[in-house]
Amino acid sequence: MSLTTGRNPLKERRRRGRRARLATAVLVTVTASAGLLLSAPGPASAGSNLLVNPGFESVRANGEPTCWQKSGWGDNDFTYALTGAAEAHSGGRAMSVTLTRRLSGDRKALMLEDTSCAPNVSPSHQYDLSLWYKSTTPDASVTVFRHDVKDGWQYWTDLKTLPVSAGYTRAQVRTPVVPPGTDQITWGVSVYGTGTVTTDDYVMEDATQPAPGDVCTAGAACTKGSWAVMPFKNPVRSMHSVVLRNGKVLLVAGSGNDPEMFKAGTFTSAVYDPKTGAMKTVPTPVDMFCAGHVQLSDGRVLIMSGNKAYPAADGSHGYEGFKDSYLFDPSSESYVKTNDMNDGHWYPSATILGNGDVISFGGLREDSTGSVTAEKFSQAQQKWLPMNEVNQTWSYWGLYPSMILMQDGRLFYSGSHVFGNGTPGTGASVYDYGANKITDVPGLQDKDHRDQSASVLLPPAQDQRVLTMGGGNVNTNPEANRHTDIIDLKKPNPAYAPGPLLPQGEVDQGQGRKPQTGGQGKMYVSAVLLPDGKVLETGGGLHDRADPVYEASMFNPAANTFQPGLATDPIPRTYHSSAFLLPDGRVMAVGDNPGNGTFDDHVSIYTPPYLYKGARPQITSVATDQWSYASTQRITVDRPVVKAELIRPAAVTHSSDPNQRFVDLPMSVGSDGRTIDLNVTSNPNLAPPGWYMLFAVDAAGVPSVASWVHLGGPQATAAEASPMVHGFAGGMPHSAEKKQEPKRTSVKVDTQIAGCDRHYGAENVCVPTVFPAKVAPTTKARCEWLGKHGYKNLRVNGKDDPLRLDPDGNGKACG
């Protein structure tokens, strides 16, 4: 069938005339509640409508329009109707979809998923989609499906929420870059609230911007990027890094894993300004060493729990967590106490929800046992809720469990954690807080060796895919692995599948750098979302607090591949290190705490390859920095860009930042190519309320410097549209549901959970309970290993010598 089959000639002449008139039209502003719409197509369109029967003029024998189908899901009552000429925008027909009752799901008129009907597309291209519509419901959006040559038809993304309009209004939006392996797409309008949406005159045109020529003259940095070690040092032994809403960085040390500072009550933080290089130390009220943290919707940082006590030298107790909680205010650069949590939580999780609440799990209690108490901080009440107002499963999730918010409000526990084995079962789960049910997810490789792995929600958040990388086990102390696993949470019954192996680099095992071999990977790996849509993985070590690995790579979510061989940070980055995105598109790395108790205070900055590709685009104006959900927001740029996104600022520690996310902003481009309307998701679960970095990216992948915008808050409550939530992951088997744990206070946790034998050295020195496999179980071999790794003047605490490090009994290990 020809791509022009079914077109009405009169209608085509009207459309061409209307397009010519629109080409000279200016951009117009509709009401604030309706957002911004464009009355002119983008400049890069190919000018040829790629759609079959775009105005419903051709009808099949069954009365339905050629190349269109009725589609949808859920519990709702609906009708479809082909209207007459009186209701059409042009020609003789339009399509209306009406919902009269809705409990769940949506209905849509969708282009037929058929090789002769669905428009063909080219990977790496972008397409301008437009239609004319009128609507009595705010709950409608442009939805796109794509055909993967391997996996068939699948949901792709929602691009734009359509405001209520009594008369016909033109809506236009540009697709993201078409993923590899995609040969066709279909699209239409999803109606997910009661009311009627009538549509007509659909258009799809190629809007691909050619990438500029190669202008990089920086040698290897053009493809590998470059690292620079700053001429100043971190004034605090920071364990926690938070990018604040003003672009500064909060570096929290507490006692900095230094028991002497703990005993002296010396707790520290610093605020770093990347623009000026200034470091300011900040009074810190308690030992926030190994606390949890997350940005609230107003930009303040909620910091929960921390270190009440270091482990006793005799092993009578381990680390202890307290109940205290504080807010850090970026404006005053000071801490203010909140009410206490219900339990102590040393190493807790912290996940912000779509309504701005924060939920927290895991960690160690005040008595060193494992906490089974779920905690919830209420955005509305600005306090931690009492335990009886928080759903409890009495599950022990471990330390820093990676809990990622899904698009339907459930939580995905990725299997990444700190210390010891994974959770019982498959090691990864979906937790439905409303139903208070945990369902195991299969497929995670070697789930008891994912300690200090990294998990990240891949760009864009709308794709609902999670990548987990690397890991080891501090108890058994094997060589860290190269595993990666990817899960698509849009599947009816999602499961992890193996991803490509982590690339290998060089490892220093006390004898200088040597190439990694065999299955050697890394733990303590950092993962950073970049504005070009890729993920930088960097840093890490081969063993618990030892043997740094010098390797960095770039993961491409579109191709599921790593680009190996990037420039490597010259500073070792293992335990207690952080890497995170700055608003200027560079990456900052701090920290390292090997087992001998030392701490590297150098600061490194990575300049990715995209910053060597020539001039950067600039966001020259943002109409407002206060954004609401389901709105359209206008920006201007100094030259054409191909995509824009919101990236949530980092709050990272111990390889963990479950709130890190990249949210695509589908664009509608004005006739000048520089005035752009960005379409904001209607779903707060995809982009929880708060401050975000707004980047615009050109065709070469070069990003602008970020502008700061605030999403949600009071503006969100005034938005007319309801969240567009899909029924993904609805087919998980009941057999995988975990049995509810009995009500209990805690679970017993070994005092050596950190993998450290406290019989030796000081409290902040971690002599491994199990040495690497290549170290023979003899006094000589163990002492040689300790010497090569910087352990000095080790004393024996008490009479026991389980590792036989003091054969002459003089109280000095390896003496």
TrEMBL record:
<protein>
    <submittedName>
        <fullName>Galactose oxidase early set domain-containing protein</fullName>
    </submittedName>
</protein>
<feature type="region of interest" description="Disordered">
    <location>
        <begin position="491"/>
        <end position="520"/>
    </location>
</feature>
<dbReference type="InterPro" id="IPR013783">
    <property type="entry name" value="Ig-like_fold"/>
</dbReference>
<dbReference type="Pfam" id="PF09118">
    <property type="entry name" value="GO-like_E_set"/>
</dbReference>
<feature type="domain" description="Glyoxal oxidase N-terminal">
    <location>
        <begin position="268"/>
        <end position="596"/>
    </location>
</feature>
<dbReference type="InterPro" id="IPR011043">
    <property type="entry name" value="Gal_Oxase/kelch_b-propeller"/>
</dbReference>
<dbReference type="GO" id="GO:0005975">
    <property type="term" value="P:carbohydrate metabolic process"/>
</dbReference>
<keyword id="KW-0732">Signal</keyword>
<dbReference type="InterPro" id="IPR006311">
    <property type="entry name" value="TAT_signal"/>
</dbReference>
<feature type="domain" description="Galactose oxidase-like Early set">
    <location>
        <begin position="616"/>
        <end position="710"/>
    </location>
</feature>
<dbReference type="InterPro" id="IPR009880">
    <property type="entry name" value="Glyoxal_oxidase_N"/>
</dbReference>
<dbReference type="InterPro" id="IPR015202">
    <property type="entry name" value="GO-like_E_set"/>
</dbReference>
<dbReference type="Pfam" id="PF07250">
    <property type="entry name" value="Glyoxal_oxid_N"/>
</dbReference>
<dbReference type="InterPro" id="IPR037293">
    <property type="entry name" value="Gal_Oxidase_central_sf"/>
</dbReference>
<dbReference type="InterPro" id="IPR014756">
    <property type="entry name" value="Ig_E-set"/>
</dbReference>
